[in-house]
Amino acid sequence: MDAYIFRIGNLMGRDEDGLFQHNYSTNSMLNRLTSFIKIKCIPDTLKYVDFEFTPVDYAAKASVLLAKYANKSNRIFHVCNTSYLNAEDFLRLYSEMYEQMEFISLEEFNKLIKSLLNKSEEMSFKLRDIIEELNFDHKRRNCKIIVKADFTAKFLENLDFKWKKVDKEYFKKVFDYLINVGYIENN
Prior knowledge:
Blueprint: E1 5-8, E2 11-12, H1 28-39, E3 41-43, E4 50-51, E5 54-55, H2 56-69, E6 76-79, E7 85-86, H3 87-97, E8 102-104, H4 106-119, H5 121-126, H6 128-140, H7 150-157, H8 168-180
Parallel strand pairs: 1-6, 2-5, 3-8
Antiparallel strand pairs: 4-7
Helix pairs in contact: 1-6
């Protein structure tokens, strides 16, 4: 079969205005972030984790370029923003623009989650994505898998394409949109 593979990264809101996919509640990364937002904290074990924000319009432009210039020796591409946002920057930006968030110890975090889960089934549903994260955290801590898209990024650079840096302006567009549609509650 004569085929090409485009592995798409974590799609986020459009760069122009933060417009997000209509089924934003199915985006696991977004659900994880909004769970942290709901409880206003992140476990410090995630302090140095990088979050990938691939603006959907940038992913589309990159995919079109790759499709146009791919050849038989270049068949697999990772279409993802290589300009990551680490958890510290996420927490800082969200705290500056919306509500204060903080890092707390994993022990405190686990106690908080258990306390919240005992309050209601609704809270259990709201926190489903970070509960999943906690259940597997101990297995993944020693895992050293790092997804790299260096080849694709270099290929795109040679075509005068550069990924969007997750700056304050873009961050605000994405989260303002999610607040405006009611997905994230902001006090």
